[in-house]
Amino acid sequence: MSDIAITSEINKLIRESGFTKNQKMLCPITRIFKMRYPHVDSSKVCIIAGKVLK
Predict the structure, then answer these.
(1) How far apart are CA 27 and CA 24, in angstroms?
(2) Which long-range contacts (CB under 8 A, 24 or more apart) does 19-26 make?
(3) pLDDT tens digits, residue range 3-54?
C-alpha cells in the first residue's frame, strides 16, 4: 500500500472518529489500521500516522 493511500485512510479514520487530532491517537489508529489491513507493515503505518497527527 502506498504512503498516499495510508495517509488518506488515516485521515478518514480521524474524521470518522469525531475526536480532535493529538499524539495519543497514534496507537489506536495503528491498531485499527492493522486490523483492517493486516498485510501492511505496522512500523510504516506508525511513522506515517505520527506525521499526520503532528
Answers:
(1) 7
(2) 21/52, 21/53, 22/53, 23/50, 23/53, 23/54, 25/49, 25/53, 26/50, 26/53
(3) 999 999 999 999 998 888 889 999 999 999 999 999 999 999 999 999 999 8
Q: List Cα–Cα distances, 29 to 3, 18, 46, 48, 52, in angstroms.
A: 15, 13, 8, 11, 11
Nearest Cα neighbor of 26 from 46, 54, 4 is 46
The CA distance from 45 to 27, in Å, is 10
Mapped onto helix, strand or coil, the DSSP state of residue 38 is coil
Packing angle of the helix pair 26-36, 3-17 (nearest 10 deg): 110
- The residue written with cell numbers 478518514 in the block is 12
